[in-house]
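Q:
My hope is that you can spare some time for a protein that puzzles me. I hope you can help me see how the letters and the tokens relate. Thank you; the sequence and its tokens follow:
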Amino acid sequence: MLVVHFNIGAQSKMTRKQYIDKYKDIAIENMRNHKVPASITLAQGVLESENGRSYLATEGYNHFGIKCHKGWQGKSVTH
């Protein structure tokens, strides 16, 4: 299972380069463990989270646009 937890908190004005610099090591480690290219993980995170600035990224720590479905029992953010 690929687990990537990005927490940027108040850094809502992060540029694309800052985002990549901040999360590249996590993406590389996940690439080693799960064989998903770090470039793909970072590109998807940049795209889905607007460089970590989107509401889902800042409030829900969700950089990939992952959705909850019926029956989900865990924490969630409504958007």
Remarks:
- The chain has a mean pLDDT of 86.
- The helical segments are 16-34, 38-49, 55-60.
- The longest helix spans residues 16-34.
